[in-house]
Amino acid sequence: MSTEEKTAEGSSTPQKSSGGKLAIAVIATAALAGTGGFVVANSTGGDEGTTTAASSGEAGGESATTINEVDIPGENRGYEDVHTDEPLVTTDWLAERLDEGDLYEQGIVLLDVSEDLPTSELTPYAEAHIPQAQYVEWSSEFTQPNTREFIDADEFTELAQSLGINDDTTVVLYGDNNNWFAAYAAWVFNLYGVEDVKLLDGGLHKWEAYDERELVEEVPSVPEGDFEAKPQNHDIRAFQPEVLEIAEENAAADGENVGEFNLVDIRSAEEHNGEVGVDPEIFEGEGASIWGHIPGSVNVTWTEIVDEETGEFLPEEEIRAIYEEAGVDFDKPIIAYCRIGERASHTWYALSQILGEEVKVYDGSWSEWGNSVGVPVANNSGERAGLWGQQ
């Protein structure tokens, strides 16, 4: 999560600050009625059966302004060092490289980035893993303590070098849950300028459960690498102020997608419609007080683009057809979101790396949006759902 803005009727302006940092300034204003207090927009939408509420207030009252500003170091590098001609490798490809010997000597670093839920039917890394794979703990190694902001470029450099990554290394990532967090790692690696990043198509499921290939207990040791991270590439990361601007345009157009970006919500249809929030026993701190979706977003659940049996991505033409049918206009760039950004990264990988489109991940996602005050929310259930609903 890049910022923790509490916004009402207002505007957001990303501006470059000194030192190459992006100053995210959110200015929220709300009219004060004669009796005092904020009057904010609760939720907005326009689809059939969508509940809506807008801000109201009496003219002439004083206004209150809240400004939250966070500096996120970054730059705009475009997509040249992000898009790759060969984003996926097969389990056969990896098995052949392992048969040839040391992956590091072949310029390959293999990383396991798994969620490791107790309910997983796959073997956790600590017990056994694909030969020569190292483990990266996404929840602690990618983010700063007590925030959801990522480690800085210097810290990422240290992490990458500890994994043996050089400028010319091919980084191959895999994980459980059909590569949810492996794709998240791929996005983070691209964010910091690692140029040759690939996913093992089908991930650990394909290797272990479907192919029934070998797992080992040995943890590899690799020489320290020399990779130097770049500042974050903000062309592949969306922040809440940018999404808010798009959402407000869509809300004003009765929920139609009129903004310059497509918004793709990859959560379940029930979450998108506002019928359910999240299961706190599974997702713990990822719940949201407001249920629904960002106005103008289309819903394509991530499972629609993978093979149910192998966990591999569907062919490129099938993936494109699924999004076109859902209403994605490929003449416009795309912002994908979920709850915390990991499944949105899976969608980012499909749309950006496999299809070659211009795509950002809004990693604040619904855990940020659904807990913010005053942002527009569309709910197709016809109910006032969530913490503020009549449950």
UniProtKB/TrEMBL annotation:
Annotated segments matching region Disordered: 43-82
Rhodanese domain ranges (all copies): 104-216, 257-378
Lineage: Bacteria, Bacillati, Actinomycetota, Actinomycetes, Micrococcales
Gene Ontology molecular function terms on file: thiosulfate-cyanide sulfurtransferase activity
Keyword Repeat assigned: yes
Catalytic activity: thiosulfate + hydrogen cyanide = thiocyanate + sulfite + 2 H(+)
Keywords, comma-separated and alphabetical: Repeat, Transferase
UniProt protein name: Sulfurtransferase
Pfam families tied to this protein: Rhodanese (PF00581)
Compositional bias segments (type: Low complexity): 49-66
